[in-house]
Design a protein that fits this description.
Length: 339
């Protein structure tokens, strides 16, 4: 529909240009015709004067020979002047000789009177048509600019790569954070001890329940958002200090899911779950190098930009094999998303 309107306006613009060209041609033709008529009138006025000048000596010679013939010729000339005054065509030649002022005045007044009016009307028509043409051209250009602006705005609005588009769908994310857990452990009967051995105590019985501040963890996570509110994650965590019981650095890895409470809000809640595998190698008696468990998390995330977010949250991890270990934790970090 917009293309039809634009074609119609272009057709009207070309038609207006054609009318303007035609009017300008007609005006030029009228001016040329008026000049030709003026030149013809001047030539007609001069010819009878020259003819009269040549005929003057002949009439004087005829008067000297025959006075009566002269009077008769004078009478004839007088009759011709009256006849020229009565006839419009003959009046030009005779009237120009006898009364050139009246003849020229009448001819020039009759020809020059309507010409300025006609030229004025033609100029007004041309100016009006030019203004109409320019107005239509401006309207066409304005319409094209509006269409381009509208198309650009729609494309920018629909583009998934806008800076303010905080929808996670089909985006890959890399999350880096630091978590600090607190460890609560119940020792199994045949499991390894959960407290540090005391070499100075000969008896040194193991504690049945232990609690202490665990090693801080550097958490690295790679994720992919299958929808706007759900992401699949894989992670690896590295303890930043040694386990005082195992005298080794714990390492954890696993997979999980994370959901978000909003699709594109700046501040959104999140919740997630992980399956955890722990590898901590130790020579401690009854110690198992592998442990496994589950981890749940909740928190808030602030998506400052499409590609950048910050999060804080809390989590609880439960491990089951070395002992019943319960680890509440708090932490935070940064999330980078692309594309």
């Amino acid at each position: 529909m917009r293309d039809d309107e634009r074609c119609e306006r272009a057709r009207r613009a070309w038609a207006g240009a054609l009318v303007v060209a035609t009017a300008l041609g007609a005006q030029a033709w009228g001016q040329a015709s008026a000049g030709a008529q003026t030149a013809g009138a001047s030539a007609g006025a001069e010819a009878p004067v020259e003819a009269g000048a040549e005929a003057g000596p002949a009439e004087e010679d005829a008067a000297a020979e025959d006075e009566g013939a002269e009077d008769e010729g004078a009478a004839t000339t007088g009759d011709g002047g009256e006849s020229g005054g009565g006839e419009s065509v003959g009046g030009e030649s005779v009237g120009g000789e006898s009364d050139g002022g009246e003849s020229d005045g009448g001819e020039s007044g009759g020809g020059a009177g309507p010409e300025p009016v006609q030229r004025t009307l033609d100029s007004r028509v041309v100016n009006e048509q030019q203004e109409d043409l320019e107005r239509e051209q401006r309207e066409v250009m304005d319409e094209e600019e509006r269409e381009v602006s509208l198309i650009t705005a729609v494309e920018e609005e629909e583009s998934p790569y806008r800076v303010d588009n905080r929808d996670h769908a089909n985006m890959v994310s890399l999350r880096v954070g630091v978590h600090i857990p607190y460890r609560l452990t119940i020792k199994y009967a045949n499991g390894p001890r959960c407290d540090q051995p005391d070499p100075t105590d000969p008896v040194d019985e193991a504690e049945q329940f232990c609690n202490d501040l665990a090693e801080p963890l550097l958490d690295l996570e790679l994720g992919y958002a299958v929808t706007s509110t759900l992401a699949i994650t894989a992670f690896a965590s590295l303890a930043l200090d040694e386990d005082p019981v195992a005298n080794a650095t714990p390492r954890q890895f696993g997979v999980g899911l994370r959901g978000y409470t909003s699709e594109d809000a700046i501040v959104k809640g999140f919740f997630g779950a992980r399956v955890i595998f722990d590898y901590t190698k130790s020579d401690l008696e009854s110690w198992s190098n592998f442990d496994a468990g589950l981890r749940g998390e909740v928190g808030l995330q602030i998506d400052a930009l499409r590609w950048l977010g910050f999060y804080v949250g809390g989590a609880v991890t439960v491990r089951l094999f070395r002992g019943f270990t319960f680890l509440p934790e708090a932490g935070g970090g940064i999330q980078v998303r692309f594309p």
